[in-house]
Write a structure and sequence with these properties.
Strand content: 5-15%
Order of helices and strands: HHEHEEHHH
Shape: globular
Number of helices: 6
Structural class: alpha+beta
Number of domains: 1
CATH topology: Zincin-like
CATH class: Alpha Beta
Radius of gyration: 14 Å
Helix content: 40-55%
CATH architecture: 2-Layer Sandwich
Length: 125
């Protein structure tokens, strides 16, 4: 376990976003990033994850591949990274940073329309 304060954790999330390849980072629009302690029951339902499993992050929005011409003037999509489970799983500060980076990239993949199934095929889990 490696616990840090909220400001430091949010910095890890910002660093992970800033560290994305520019081709991806430049294509991310109308998305905000947030940190919450734990996933809500709605997050488990949204992701199809059964209770008792652990969610490290969630993409709350409409993937690019599902947007139509009617998708405009909408509230930003949100990518939420869950601090408490990541801290509990982290061995140390470096490991926590790696897991935050992996989780941010995973949720951004959902923004781009890449499913969990495809991420498994790509070896991204």
């Amino acid at each position: 376990m490696h616990a840090i304060d909220r400001d430091a954790f949010e910095e890890l999330v910002r660093d992970a976003v800033d560290g994305l390849p520019s081709g991806f980072r430049e294509r991310i629009e109308n998305v905000t990033f947030a940190v919450e302690d734990w996933a809500s029951p709605e997050d488990f339902g949204l992701t199809g994850t059964s209770r008792g499993n652990t969610l490290l992050g969630v993409y709350r929005g409409v993937p690019l591949t599902h947007r139509t011409s009617g998708y405009n003037l909408t509230m930003p999509d949100i990518i939420v990274i869950f601090q408490a489970p990541l801290e509990r799983m982290a061995r140390d500060a470096d490991h926590l940073g790696e897991m935050v980076e992996h989780t941010v990239r995973h949720e951004i993949a959902h923004y781009f329309g890449i499913s969990d199934h495809r991420l498994r095929e790509l070896g991204a889990y």
